[in-house]
Known about the structure:
single chain; binds fe (ii) ion
Amino acid sequence: VDATALHLASASDPAWLARALAELDEVLIDHAHCEKKAASTAISLLFRYPDRARFGVALSRLAREELLHFEQVLGLLGERGVPFRHLRPSPYAHDLLARTRSQEPERLLDTLLCLALIEARSCERMALLADVVPDGAVAHLYRRLLESEARHHETYVALAEEFTPPAVVATRLGELARAEAAVLATMPPWPRMHT
Ligand SMILES: [Fe+2]
Ligand SMILES: [Fe+2]
């Protein structure tokens, strides 16, 4: 994974990887919830901004991919004999999205860039897990998924550039990347994709 292309302001704490490996099944359940939530978020943007011409196909395709990922992670849980269940979500996405400004079009710009950063962090973490996880099926799935998540990162940045000059997008992406790193540093030590 090209760390520069992901625009993250920090590398993951090695303690996160150790925790994720120690409680991999719980991380996988959380990951399934994250994929479901990613699809739902993309669909909600379709409803909130129906007049943005380029959003329709891009967000529909993204949502379909996330639902496919959801099914693939559910399949992996099934193979491992782990029942899917409710989990208390990490406050990460909520805390990051709280940084979005309330006036349009800044609200949309910030939302897209926060989502781009969430995709980037997922991608970074899937790559870390894929490199060390002893289970070949998990490593294989993560290597495939992380390519999609890197592409989703690019999609959200490209949608922001549809209505904002690239230099403004780059500056705000840098600010929100630092916010993302700060939010991540305050997360509780739960076995989750984003803690
Ligand atoms: Fe995904
Ligand atoms: Fe994604």
